[in-house]
Design brief:
Length: 453
Amino acid sequence: MLIVLVGAVPEYHIDQEGIPASRAELAKHIHFADNFTSIVTEWYLIEREAYKVSLASSLFFAGLLIGNITFGPLSDKLGRKPVYISGLFFDVVFGYVTALAPNYDVFAVSRFFVGIVNGGMALVSFVLTQEYVGKSFWSFTGSLTNLTFAVGIAVYALLGYCIREWRYLALVSNTLGVIFLLLSFMLPESPRWLYSQGKTAEAEDVLQYIALGNGKERLNLKLKPSAGTFRKDESALGILNLVKHPVLRWRTIILMYIWYVCSFVYYGLTLNAGELRGNLYLNVALSGLVEVPAFPLCMFFIEKSWSGRRKTMTCFLIFAGFACIFTMFLPTKAGLLLSPTSLALCGKMMVSAAFNIVYIYTSELYPTVLRNAGLGVCSMSCRFGGILAPFVPSMKSLSPSVPFVVFGISGLSAGFLTLLLPETLNKPIAESIEDLQSPKYQVLKNEEAEQIS
């Protein structure tokens, strides 16, 4: 979200005909209207140079792709905490490079590296949060983690409103990361990861530490050895295990498409279903706050036996798909409740809810030894959806309704594909690949999977 304000383009006019050839000449004749600065006003990224703002954003997303792929397997092999802290440290370092960049080239490269470490660190921190608590709390902690992202967008808008100099805004935003970095050293390692690695004694110590922190007396705790301790040869394979085992292969294919569609429809609704006008900072805040109601909805429905994870996510995705399709039938000047913008915001809330569920659902569908790798691959496909969504509006040249049909069909197809996955509510969590071969862990009941059992 940094680029939304840091790369904002204020109104401007040039007091001569034509665009000056040199930057020095352009600086003499251009006048920016708004009372804020950005990389656009500092490096004059307008007209022929305007693409550089989008390029910096694309480089960030490219970095996210790499981070999602690499950090997951690393944390499965080296541990959650060291990989998370390393990622957060370099996130802060490259964040300061962004704020202090002497020119656009350094700024753009720093955004690429921020994307790598930010995407990987965020993924590992989500898994670490989930593995600190019992499965019955996963929906709550998962929703709370994603809720902080939506609230963070609104807080960032408030900071932007108060701090109009882009470098100071980047510095203040990044300094919050330093505080969390120092606090993160107090965190223990994931007890689930320790247990999956056969480090039973260390896992017991962490559980005792958590229990004491919750105000409980010292427990007489003794974990039995894991039946499928993660072996070194499995660790070396990493992501290959996601395609080697039939159960994981089908699960990963379906989840990758669902993640892709969540991102695709999310950005598609934002870009196509009506553009908010008015104050820049208010618009940024609303784009985050509109997602807040999605999280209590998730927490309510995914814990009910009659809905659970699978049916709830199916309904949210289908609703988001219909929101795309119905938007093209509404007149632009319709009333407030039936305007394309209102329906788009409602659809965005629904797809945000689906996004929230898919994080929780995916973490429950993968065994502990491959949870980060699975989330990393799925998150990678999600980034492709975000990158492709802005190009769909060009299909309006065929027909104004084509982009909405594309987004709508995508949402509907992902919703129905979700029904092929199993329900995980009140079901055991697999710790190892061996656990998946037990009938109670089966995901897709195809013949090939049953032969392995």
